[in-house]
Amino acid sequence: MSLKKVLTGRVCHTLLSSTVRTPFAAFCTASQAPITPRYSLATKLAVAIPTALLGSWILFSEDPGTRVVIALQLPFRLARDIACAATIAADYKWSLRGLVGDKYEEAQHKVHERSAERLQRLCFANGGIYIKLGQHIAQLDHLLPEEYVLTMRRTMLDQCPVSTYKEVARIVKEDLGSTPEELFASFEHTPIASASLAQVHRATAHDGRQLAVKVQHAGLRDSCTADTLTVEFLVNSVHFLFPKFDYSWLVEEIKDSLPKELDFSIEAANAERCRKNFSSRQTHVRGRVAVPEISHPLSTKRVLTMEFVTGANVCDKQALARMGLKPKDVARLVSETFNEMIFIFGDVHCDPHAANMLIREKNGKPELVLLDHGLYKRITDEFRRYAGLWRALVFGDEAGIKQHAAAMNAADSYAFFACMLTMRPWEEVTRASADHLYLPTSAEGRKKIQGYASQFAREISDMLRRIPRPLLLLLKTNDCLRTVDTCLGQVLKIL
């Protein structure tokens, strides 16, 4: 470069920087400095607080590694939830647009089926709490559209996740201070049963007793709150888009019951009360109801050790026949047992599906073994109006039905409330000549009932949102018991 060009450049630079102080020059000079972004205090807090909470949640826990995994999985689980909810919402929106009458009903049936399949896949993909949600839906036979109930029932009740033995051994050691091999004379690595929240392993105590050890799936207690809030968000979003589908009552029930079911010390206490109740002089089925004995020294909030019991599934009619037992006697024993829970003791086992009830032969008569005492509901004396309501239903007493329905927050729709409880049209509920103790159990009758659930989905959802929480669980219990009666082929004329 020539000397002339160098000097010319330096002179121009000097003139620009010292004498020509224009706004443009100032801008050019400033633009050469590094830019430091400035964030508001609110923005900084919005980032810092969640980060600090997440870090504390991970660090100050018994198992930071598991919580790290949950934190990493959460965005993917949330993305699956949103994608599933958006797909279901769009399907309902577009498939039912402009349809009325029979065409609407036919299209709605198909959308229900597709949506139920999507929800089922989501439950299996996310696992844990979602499996429990699917099982809950599968048991609401007369309260939700049949497409959802039947889809969930086909797989959710017998296809549950299985934890590895390494995870099981880790939880046992964390909670009890020793490995399964140290605590027991033998401990089977393969579970004999697995459910949504836990799995059961057979073991032998050092004194020779046969035991069943229930171990909670890893990470459930940590992910419970986040999963429940996510499900609540999705249910509220669907309700916002489709006011007809308001299942907030289902979310509220899950929020209330799940923390209790995840605390096995509560289940142990429930089992002890149940055994005490059916050993008392108040019961009419004394000696015919059994509850596995709890081994408290080997039990914690995540591990429950109990007596190992054998028996036939309550719905296995072939096994009942081999024991010389009649299905009618079994159905009567089941019904009497739960009637006493509701109307005498006020302490109700609210998850009585077939897998939680075993039958044994004792002195030529059936003996009922009750399992899984995690979900109970205490019924107050004030709530005993429920008994008065059923008395009015049995006698077709319209004034009594209206009076007791008002106590259940259903005064303005007492007729529909009665129909929902009895699964019969109102004219049959109040007809003097009707058999008010009869509940339809034939395939045709059940299909008609399930059709009502689809047809009156909005009314049922509104009703379930308003009624007391204990009644909601009793309705679920009634549905489970009706299913047992149906599989036994019995129609018992008892409450």
UniProtKB/TrEMBL annotation:
It comes from Coccomyxa subellipsoidea (strain C-169). PANTHER family: AARF DOMAIN-CONTAINING PROTEIN KINASE 1, ABC1 FAMILY PROTEIN. It comes from the Eukaryota. GO terms for cellular component: mitochondrial inner membrane. Belongs to the protein kinase superfamily. ADCK protein kinase family. Residues 156-404 form the ABC1 atypical kinase-like domain. This is ABC1-domain-containing protein. Pfam families: ABC1. GO terms for biological process: lipid homeostasis; mitochondrion organization. Transmembrane segments: none annotated.
